[in-house]
Amino acid sequence: MLRIPDSVRTARLRGELPGRQHLDGWLALMSHPDLVPWMWPGHLGGARTREQVLERIALDRANREAHGFSPWAVVLPETGETIGRVGCSPAVLDGEDVVDLGWMLHPHHWRRGYTAEIAREAVRVAFDELGIPELVAYTLTGNHASQGVMRRLGMEFDRETEHAGLPHVVYRLRSTGPTRRT
To answer: Which residue, among 143, 151, 140, has the nearest Cα to 173 in the 3D structure?
Structure first.
């Protein structure tokens, strides 16, 4: 089975297979009050706990083994600081099995182009190395910043839907090259 690389580099960032070394960075990220309303509002439970972040790391590693892909921990190479989580995950959306391209970046690093930079690398790996034919991304209808990233990546609006009991928009990006997955 083809698998994402353990690590990748972009001009300013490094993506790494997540592990315990990323726990504190992900905990700061997944409990930040500016991010939580977009990721886990209301009935979705709010800020993540240390135990939930450890579960996320374990699930991402298990997805990589089972499916060949999972998000990377995003690290600033010059400091080693873990600032995000970006990449592909298996998901079910409206009853359809999809490959979800998702991202979370610590709010202190928003508006620097980091999200699109590392997400482009995730798209490249998904299409060129793994042969995944299509990626989807979805977010709350009011999350215009994430929708902007989707458009910068060349994704096209697909539809509005309800996901997790909340209104979402769905964007898609299809590979133009040969695919290896069935």
So the answer is: 151
Q: What is the pLDDT of residues 42-101, one digit of tens each?
A: 888 889 999 999 999 999 999 999 999 999 999 999 999 999 999 999 999 999 999 999
- The pLDDT assigned to 105 comes to 97
Say if residues 82 and 75 touch (Cβ distance below 8 Å): yes
Domains defined for the chain, CATH in brackets: 7-174 (3.40.630.30)
Place of tokens 């990748």: 8
Q: Give me 13's structure tokens.
A: 């960032």
Of 151, 174, 166, nearest in space to 40 by CA: 166
d(CA 100, CA 13) in angstroms, rounded, equals: 21
Residue at 114: amino acid letter? Y
98 contacts 168 by C-beta, under 8 angstroms = no
**Pairing assessment for the beta strands 14-16 and 72-75 based on DSSP bridges:** antiparallel
User: How far is residue 102's CA from residue 93's CA, in Å, rounded to a whole number?
Assistant: 13
pTM of the predicted protein model: 0.93
**Residue closest to 93 by CA, chosen among 163, 174, 166:** 163
| Residues 71, 102: Cα–Cα separation, whole Å | 8
